[in-house]
Amino acid sequence: MLIKIKRPSDCRESEVTDKRLYLERRRFLRLAWGTVLATAAGVVGPELGSPRPALAGEKLKGVRKGPFSTDEELTPYKAVTTYNNFYEFATDKRSPAELAKNFQTKPWTVAIEGEVKKPAVYALEDLLKPHPLEERIYRLRCVEAWSMVIPWVGFPLGDLIKRLEPTSKAKYVEFVTLYDPEQMPGQRYPVLKWPYVEGLRMDEAMHPLTILAVGLYGEVLPNQNGAPLRLVVPWKYGFKSIKSIVKIRFVEQQPVTTWHRAAPHEYGFYANVNPEVDHPRWSQARERRIGEFFKRKTLMFNGYAEEVAHLYAGMDLRKYY
Ligand code: MTE
Question: Is the C-beta atom of 77 inside 6 A of ligand 1?
Fold first, then answer.
């Protein structure tokens, strides 16, 4: 993004060979089948709400299939978990997996603040408890012009918002990442203004496609992918999907988001995947799916136009980029 980053073409094809893709698919089917059996048998194992700490990679129980999943080829687990943007750990894509290895995600609290009837600092377990976990296979499309297909595990953000009862003044939702330079070495440098902040308009936050994720590939979210709680907004560029969330604030004014603050001409508040509006330094018309050689056409709203285009009816998407 602002920092010189490796481009998608730098992702070596050797990391995502056909064999690995095949093994990943097998593994995924095994996981899905295991989940079905465990659920049918009423097996209760370690899960997010259990007293035993949930560890990255631990299997999540009781995950049901959610709506809106794409049937496109999954990006292999290895690529999803070793090609990460997580500036709190490092500005390159390879280091977060290693540097986030010992990141402490338990205990974890989320502060709910602002224009809401139930503000409080919630233990993550309490915040999650009423929400059944779903698997949703969504594309993630980065503004850097690469994309992946990821089986996320999470639940609709809108369900949580309804429970928290925002007031009529709440027009936007702001999300804040943990600030802890002791644990997050990237925060020791002013590459961005910390903590990382993102935001959505209330109708975007309430849209059924928008989820809070706690896992991927049927397992607890790896730290480098934003454990223990991250946002996934599939029709927007990846940078809207803020990681390791510690605060959700309901506000009247449009929040100033991290990337917009860093480079306002390059990153707007809306950040909708839009092949017609180029990033000032490169085209958004095509993208490289990680694991594929040839580029493909970028789809409007990342392929979710039917579901979300109405949210932006009448808006000039060149102005509101
Ligand atoms: N959230 C925080 N807190 N810090 C970050 O650096 N990077 C964003 C987004 N969320 C980022 C973040 C960007 S640019 C992308 S593309 C996605 O996370 C990448 O998510 P992934 O590593 O799970 O692929």
Answer: no
